[in-house]
Amino acid sequence: MAVPQPTGTADAVADAFLHSAVGGPTAPGRTRARFHPLTVTEVRPLTADAIEVTFAVPSALREDYGYLPGQYVALRTTLDGQEMRRSYSLCRPPTPGSLSIAIKRDRGGRFSTWAQTGLRPGDTLDVMSPQGTFTSSLADLDGAHIAGIAAGSGITPVMALASAVLGRSDTSRVTLVYTNRSSTDVMFLEDLADLKDRYPTRLALHHVLSREQRSAPLLSGRIDAEKLRTILDALVLPETIDEWFLCGPLDLVQLCRDTLADIGVDRSHVRYELFTTGDDPRPEPGDRRPVVVRDDQPVVTVEVTLDGHSATVQSPVDAHESILTAALRVRPDAPFACAGGVCGTCRARLLTGSVHMTENYALEPDELERGYILTCQSHPTSDRVAVDYDV
């Protein structure tokens, strides 16, 4: 497999959360993601281009929607006759009966624009059960010091993590560096201020504005390699940090990862998540023209196991289909969200054959070693491929 390496009950879930702080070795593992219709209870403006959306979770589904701070959900709806899916991080610590996400409007983004202008309380959307590994691996938060570096909507999971870390231990500390273009672009401005007021000695919050002058030159301008080094040395103090959380666009996250590696931070202590790779938007899986298999053309056999049932589909070699695209022809319920190698919703274990994975911004090294792939980015390089979504 060729893989590029870019740089129980609701009470049981709550107990697991408490014992593992915000993740840790006892945190629940990934489970099969499923959609359920949830009702919107509130749409709250955050900035001119961002909203917070809260959903009601019925008591019968509370186990399905138990989550750890830092995880995400995928939304599914139909716009102009086309199914669309998008993934968004959960922005609040776990609260029985509800979950909240933040949606920032993307330039030209159909889903985010529709949500910004048309989503109302009382509407119902299909919401996938929570997924993701952007959670802490620390089993004990007493005396722990967590650092977060976020840009734009990347604050969403980081804020949830910070709230949980500070709330679970009286001796934990959090340092946040949050960069935006201007003060009007800062999401959760009041919530972050309230968090600072609640934990004045244990939360260090530094706003960096790239297009607005602040009184401190260090907090003004775009974060480049030199500025990042200075911020780390003067404000964050890497030698005191137990775990790092990076969330934002690819260029910033990669800069932070490379810089932390250069100064000797163990990569196993660094968690990262992307909200964009900077690439052109990929077409929705449903946008692609139907594949017709002719008798005279070479094919790859793709076998998919999902919910205990296996199905086989033929994929023409010259179509260069991803495993996900082929799988959707025989299993329309195959899980996926971003289809860009970022969220990890489509992951499955490769049982037979070999693949080339075009992008991977979601799987951890240990998952790759155990044979997991992102089916949206994996293209067969053998005559037969078998994957299992249930493992």
From TrEMBL:
GO biological process terms on file: phenylacetate catabolic process
Superkingdom is: Bacteria
Q: Which residues form the 2Fe-2S ferredoxin-type domain?
A: 300-391
Please identify the protein, giving its name as recorded.
Answer: Subunit of the phenylacetly-CoA oxygenase/reductase
Q: Which GO terms describe its molecular function?
A: 2 iron, 2 sulfur cluster binding; flavin adenine dinucleotide binding; metal ion binding; oxidoreductase activity
Q: Would I find Iron-sulfur among this entry's keywords?
A: yes
Q: Which InterPro entries match?
A: 2Fe-2S_ferredoxin-like_sf (IPR036010), 2Fe-2S_ferredoxin-type (IPR001041), 2Fe2S_fd_BS (IPR006058), Beta-grasp_dom_sf (IPR012675), Cbr1-like_FAD-bd_dom (IPR008333), FAD-bd_FR_type (IPR017927), FNR_nucleotide-bd (IPR039261), MRET (IPR050415)
- Gene3D superfamilies given in the database record: 3.10.20.30, Nucleotide-binding domain of ferredoxin-NADP reductase (FNR) module (3.40.50.80), Translation factors (2.40.30.10)
A Pfam family (short name) is NAD_binding_1
Q: Give the record's keywords alphabetically.
A: 2Fe-2S, FAD, Flavoprotein, Iron, Iron-sulfur, Metal-binding, Oxidoreductase
Tell me the organism.
uncultured Microbacterium sp
Domain named FAD-binding FR-type is located at 33-137
The cofactor named in the record is: FAD
